Amino acid sequence: MERPDPAGDVLAQGMEALRALLGEGWAVREEPGQESEGLGTLFSLAPVGDGIIAQLLVEDWPALTPREVEKVLGPKAHLLRHLRHHTNLMVVAPWLSAKTQQLLTMNGIGYLDLTGNVGLRISRPAVFIHTVGAVRSPHPTSQTNKGRATLAGPKAGRLVRLLTDVRPPYRAGEIAEAASLSLPYVSRLLDTLEEQLLIQRNGRVIEDVDWPGLLRARAAETSLLRPDAYFGMVATNGIESVLTSLSALPAEEWDGLAVTGSIAARQVSPLTAGGQLMVYVANRLAIDEDLEDALGLLPAQEYADVILLRPSDDVVFERLRQVGGRQEVSLSQLALDCLSGPGRLPAEGEAVIKEMLLQEKTWRVSNISDLRQRPLP
Known about the structure:
The structure is a single chain. By secondary structure, the chain is an alpha+beta fold. It is built from 14 helices and 17 strands. The strands form four sheets. It has a seven-stranded mixed beta sheet, sandwiched between helices. Strands 12-13-15-11-14 form a five-stranded mixed beta sheet, with helices on both faces. Helix 4 (154-165) crosses helix 5 (172-179) and helix 10 (261-268) crosses helix 12 (331-339). Mean pLDDT is 87; it is low at 1-7 and 373-377.
C-alpha cells in the first residue's frame, strides 16, 4: 500500500488508500449530503456491476487513544448497529497503536491508518482486509502530542520498570520518589497511560497495571540498538567461551555487566537456538582491550556474534538475576530489550512475557518498599 502524505487531508488520503487496496473492481463513493447525525461521512462501497452495496460511516481522527475507543467510539458503534444495522463504522487516522487497533476490532469498528495498518470486515458484500503498517508512530512529536508525556526516553523507561516490577496499589508520589523522577513528570505520564488503558486509577490511587501491554507500548517507543550505543564483537573462541569467562569473573569485576537478549531469553523460555550474545556495559566502564582480552573478543564491523550495549539509564542494572554464575537483567528488562530489538528478538520477548505471566508471583514484588530488598528467583 502506498504511504500517503500525513500532512494532507486524512479522510481523503485514507479513502484513496482503501480504493487502492480494493482495486478497480470496486467502487467507493462519498454520499453527498449524508452527514448522518454528525457521526461521520457516509460512503458507499460495492463491486462494480453488482447491485449489492455496503455503507461505510467514516470518522477521521488526528489522534485516537484506546480510552477514546472505549468511551466514545464503542458506544457509537453500538448505537449505529441498532439504528442502521446495514451501516459499518470505520476510523481513518494518521497512525493507530496496536492497542487501539485491538479495541476497534473488538467493538466491530473498521480502521485504516496512513502507515498501512488496516482492519476491515464487511459481511455483505464480502470484504476482509488486514494489513500491518508501522508499529510505532512516525510522528511522535506531532502537534497532537505536544504537552503530553510519552513512553520515549530514559525517564519513561524507569517508570515502566517500576510499574511492571511492583504490584499496585500505589500513588504518583510514591512512584516519583522510588524512581527518582519529578512528580509533575510522573503525573503527566500516568495521564497518558490512563488514556492508553495501560493503568486503572481510583481517584489518585493506581489499582491495576496492564504490564504486558505497558512493556509492548514502551518497546514501540525505543530501540535496543540505539545509534552509537553498541559495539559489535567477534568471540574468538565462540559464545560459550565468553559465557564461561563471564561466569568466572570475580564479583567486583561483574559490577556493571549484565547479559540480555537471545541468550538470556533462552534461559527463561527456550524458543530458538543460537542468537547473538548481548551484554550491557555500564557507562562508567571502558570498552577497551582489557575487557576484550578478559572475554576473548575482537572488534568487528560485520558478522558480530557478541554485542556490547551502552545503557540509556542505569535502571537496566536494577534487580539483576544470577543465572549460571553470571548476572542477567531482570525479567521486565529482558522482555523490553527483546521486544525493542531486531530480527527474531520480539518473538523471544513475547515468549518471555508468556513465562512471566505464569510466574508473576515469583518476580513481581508486593510493594515499593520491597523493590530493592526482595531476593530474586
